Amino acid sequence: MSETKRLKLSSIPENEREVLEFLQKKGTCRYGNIFKELRIPPAKGSDIILSLTHKGYIKHVNETSQYQLNVELI
Hints:
Number of helices: 3
Helix content: 40-55%
Radius of gyration: 12 Å
Shape: globular
Strand content: 15-25%
Largest sheet: 3 strands, antiparallel
Order of helices and strands: EHEHHEEE
Number of strands: 5
Structural class: alpha+beta
Distance between the termini: 21 Å
């Protein structure tokens, strides 16, 4: 069984930190609703989600358009 990675929020760019903190509060959220609720333009939001997914900080939930944290925020 793998251990959850810990991520220090202070080391993350502000725009990515905002999405991570949002998902920490929500648990899971649909792709488009992340942008809508955080008032992020879709193109910029798409880049942020792609970056966070690539880094392994967030992940798809059951192969849907929902995302959740894949790390523990500290």
